[in-house]
Design brief:
The chain is α/β, with parallel strands linked by helices. The chain has two domains: 132 residues, Aspartate Aminotransferase, domain 1 (Alpha-Beta Complex); 223 residues, Aspartate Aminotransferase, domain 2 (3-Layer(aba) Sandwich), CATH 3.40.640. It is built from 14 helices and 13 strands. The strands form three sheets. It has a seven-stranded mixed β-sheet with strand order 2-8-7-6-5-3-4, sandwiched between helices. The relative contact order is 0.17. The chain binds pyridoxal-5'-phosphate (PLP). The site of pyridoxal-5'-phosphate (PLP) has 12 residues, from α5.
């Protein structure tokens, strides 16, 4: 226990240090208007690898559904989300009552925290910044543990086992952003279920699970319909390339979700988002296209990035990867050079446990990936020559 206390307190000191130097944990990737202002270029001329959005979307089925539904915007959206819940129920073989729809996965997580009022929010760093933001909005104390063991990202199951208390809420992000790691569900789900049984609320954020080859087998979604205190949250924004439209959903026990529905803004999920998501989740051909594109992009990423002798590239199972350049200086110099070519990576200086030496890079189309790779290697070699 003393070991764990030491570990947690040194992590808290690190957090406080980052706050002192004014690190903004909540500045996300994908800030296309900022990038446009910085480069003087239109959004369409910017290569944005800072947000992990599927480069081949939105699927045609989604665009058609939006066009078909446009005239419906003169009415209020369905506050009961019937059409999209029916589609999700069909896709995942669950009851529509097990689903809570939201204006993105982020709204679902916020609704859960607001409703559950946990005694603490437990965050595994480095983490998606909105976990912390949500906890702060509801004045919940935060306990932070680290996922990074120095060479790889691993779930700290025994540290969690010791640290979690009934009434806590754990954000467990699988597959993990920003590392791209995933862990076999059979290894950690029994722990999550056991914690949930003792009264710990567990939110499994599966916003990137659709990118895994065995997505359904690696998801805890069906389990969440039966287990008290266990919730799965999914996002449509990355997989179906609709971050500007926004749709996400949570899955849990119908009783809790039904009570929560009574307390929310009835119209936060707009009509077009509901229609688009209903079409998206029933579009099996887009999943096939994704598997084909992503396996080729990952194979090429292994031949290029992962083979670089001076950089650490963490194994990824999804549509983005994390790289540690040789130094903060080199990383910033590369990103600065890329900016001049209107290419943006996600600098990781505001992720707790990482630094400016790390960047997260979204996998894009074949041509775009080649463009990024050749620009990065060219800028890095020019930097090496300058230092010699
Ligand atoms: C791990 C994780 N969860 C959730 C989200 C947000 O999803 P949404 O756009 O559906 O709110 C993000 C966005 O980057 C994310 O990285």
């Amino acid at each position: 226990m003393a070991g764990l206390d030491g570990f947690i307190s040194s992590w808290l000191v690190a957090t406080a240090e980052m706050d002192k130097v004014g690190v903004n944990h909540l500045e996300h990737g994908g800030r296309i208007d900022d990038y446009s202002a910085q480069t003087g270029k239109e959004a369409g001329d910017i290569l944005d690898c800072s947000a992990n959005i599927h480069p081949l979307g939105p699927p045609a089925s989604v665009m058609e559904a939006i066009e078909r539904s446009l005239s419906g915007i003169r009415h209020y959206p369905d506050p009961r989300h019937r059409q999209v819940k029916k589609a999700l129920a069909q896709r995942f073989q669950i009851e529509p009552e097990s689903v809570l729809c939201g204006n993105g996965a982020t709204e679902c997580m916020e609704l859960l925290v607001r409703w559950l009022r946990p005694s603490r929010c437990v965050i595994l760093d480095p983490a998606f910044g909105e976990y912390e933001a949500i906890a702060q909005r509801y004045d919940r104390p935060i306990l932070r543990l680290s996922l990074f063991d120095g060479s790889r990202f691993a779930l700290p199951l025994s540290a969690l086992d010791q640290a979690l208390c009934p009434g806590d809420l754990l954000f467990l992000n699988h597959p993990h952003n920003p590392s791209g790691s995933s862990w076999p569900v059979a290894e950690w789900l029994p722990f999550a279920q056991a914690w949930a049984q003792t009264g710990v609320h567990v939110i499994i954020d599966e916003s990137f699970v659709d990118f895994l080859p065995q997505a359904d087998a690696q998801s805890a979604l069906r389990c969440a319909t039966l287990s008290p205190n266990l919730y799965v949250v999914r996002s449509a924004t990355k997989m179906f390339s609709i971050p500007g439209l926004r749709f996400g959903f949570a899955v849990g026990m119908p009783r809790v979700l039904g009570e929560l529905e009574e307390q929310r803004d009835p119209w936060s999920v707009n009509h077009l988002a509901q229609c688009a998501a209903a079409a998206a989740y029933l579009d099996g051909s887009f999943a096939e296209l994704t598997a084909d594109w992503l396996s080729r992009a990952q194979a090429r990423q292994k031949e290029t990035w992962a083979a670089h002798p001076a950089w650490t590239v963490f194994p990824t199972s999804v549509n983005f990867f994390l790289v540690r350049f040789a130094s903060c200086e080199q990383s910033l110099q590369i990103q600065d050079g890329l900016r001049r070519e209107a290419i943006f990576l996600r600098s990781c200086g505001n992720f707790l446990g990482l630094s400016d030496a790390y960047a997260r890079i979204a996998l894009r189309t074949e041509d775009e990936n080649e463009r990024v790779w050749s620009a990065v290697t060219r800028i890095a070699s020019a930097g090496d020559v300058c230092r010699e």
